[in-house]
User: Which sequence fits this backbone?
């Protein structure tokens, strides 16, 4: 195991600068796109119509991105490392061009599906490349840098989108990304090593399993746009059942999407994946409902509400950067403490919303963000480190899929809880307070449960270190 102590400068030394720049640029494409497009969507609908499909723009993009992420490992095996990565860039580019040319909502949705698939394909392969191109002690810094990109996008993305919206050029929000995508693809072709090739017997793409996974996510997402409560619950349960079926069918396949026993507690990967799924409930609960809370409950302006809603992302980034160089002793602490703080943070929001000032609510957001940030980069690195022999690439590639599935499930469940809390009745101050209190308080159970599971993961890592009888610092 690597015991070298690295600094941030080491990301740009020994030939790693080109990898650092390329992988960071890839993440920025996905991050900026998400925030820019959401900002210009009202203007898009005003020009091309299709308001009744407004929520489908996000829903189909999310579904396609999960399908794309699940396709990352098979794509690398079939095409090779470099070609798989470059292909993902061209797919994202094609989707961006399609969306920019949209003259009706159907056209736009098609473009967003292609974009989402390309984005998921890029990010999942990005994670695998971090695992392969950076030593263990340096991975956490690279992962934390990617988190900083998301925080930066949360701040500047709406600004860029707002500028295009203000001058009446919503298509410019898509054109803005085209030269960046082309630059990323060219750089990737020149610098990414082509070291992974598939053996002939594994050159089969798992079309059925990927399709089943996507169908499950889409069914679950539909629960968010169904009015009748029984149908919402049915769609949510049915969607999760279909997703689970895709995991079961993957178990004995030769061309796997996921590592063996991905949710079993007997191995290290199972607990890690459970923590991924549960801890993302915190940012979902905050990101979905806090801008609304600041506007309706506290009477803040749309701009102020939007930026306060991004506080968790900023705290996440700060914590990730600050703790990236922690040694193994502190990593164990952060892996367990992080989900605990995330759970307590959103529980604090649930208890204080409406009864205490917006400043207090914002502090609880910061607590939740610090919790997610201090644990996420180490959790990802541990998952890569603890992968079973021969499953390193699949494990790393599937991390983004697992996180995205957690986000999708959390969003569907949060919407259901908010509806039960009365948000479906309107957005009066009373209904928003009640719904948000329910969502945040009930949602806190997930990251607090993740803290208990994280303790199991720490046990697996400790046994791994004991088995090799070595002292690991920051691996």
Assistant:
């Amino acid at each position: 195991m690597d015991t070298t102590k690295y600094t941030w400068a080491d990301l740009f030394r020994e030939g790693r600068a080109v990898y650092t720049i390329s992988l960071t640029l890839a993440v920025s494409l996905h991050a900026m796109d998400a925030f820019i497009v959401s900002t210009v969507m009202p203007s898009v609908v005003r020009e091309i119509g299709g308001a009744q499909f407004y929520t489908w723009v996000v829903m189909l993009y999310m579904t396609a991105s999960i399908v794309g992420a699940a396709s990352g490992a098979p794509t690398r095996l079939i095409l090779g490392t470099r070609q798989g990565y470059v292909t993902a860039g061209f797919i994202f580019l094609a989707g961006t061009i399609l969306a920019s040319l949209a003259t009706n909502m159907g056209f736009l949705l098609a473009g967003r599906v292609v974009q989402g698939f390309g984005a998921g394909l890029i990010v999942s392969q990005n994670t695998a490349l971090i695992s392969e191109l950076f030593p263990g002690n340096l991975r956490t810094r690279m992962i934390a840098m990617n988190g900083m990109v998301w925080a930066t996008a949360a701040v500047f993305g709406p600004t860029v989108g707002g500028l295009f919206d203000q001058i009446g050029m919503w298509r410019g929000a898509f054109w803005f990304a085209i030269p960046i995508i082309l630059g990323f693809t060219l750089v990737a072709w020149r610098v990414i090593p082509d070291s992974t090739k598939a053996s002939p017997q594994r050159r089969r793409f798992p079309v059925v399993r990927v399709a089943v996974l996507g169908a499950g996510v889409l069914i679950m997402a539909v629960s968010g746009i169904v009015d009748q409560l029984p149908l919402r619950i049915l769609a949510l349960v049915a969607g999760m059942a279909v997703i689970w079926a895709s995991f079961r069918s993957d178990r004995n396949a030769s061309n796997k999407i996921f590592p063996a026993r991905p949710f079993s507690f007997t191995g290290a990967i199972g607990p890690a994946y459970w923590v991924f799924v549960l801890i993302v409930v915190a940012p979902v609960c905050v990101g979905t409902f806090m801008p609304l809370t600041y506007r309706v409950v506290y009477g803040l302006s749309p701009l102020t509400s939007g930026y306060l809603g991004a506080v968790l992302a900023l705290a996440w980034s700060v914590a990730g950067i600050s703790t990236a160089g922690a040694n193994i002793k502190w990593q164990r602490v952060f892996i367990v403490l992080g989900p605990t703080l995330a759970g307590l943070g959103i529980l604090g929001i649930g208890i204080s919303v409406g009864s205490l000032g917006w400043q207090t609510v914002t502090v609880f957001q910061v607590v939740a963000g610090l919790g997610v940030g201090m644990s996420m980069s180490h959790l990802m690195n541990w998952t890569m480190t603890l992968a079973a022999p021969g499953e390193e690439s699949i494990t790393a590639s599937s991390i983004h899929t697992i996180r995205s599935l957690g986000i999708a499930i959390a969003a569907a469940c949060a919407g259901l809880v908010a509806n039960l809390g009365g948000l479906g009745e309107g957005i009066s101050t009373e209904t928003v307070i009640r719904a948000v209190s329910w969502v945040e308080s009930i949602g806190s159970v997930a990251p607090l449960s993740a803290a208990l599971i994280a303790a199991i993961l720490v046990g697996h890592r400790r046994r791994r270190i004991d088995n090799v009888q070595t002292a690991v610092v920051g691996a």
Remarks:
- The chain has three domains: 1-203, 207-252, 265-475.
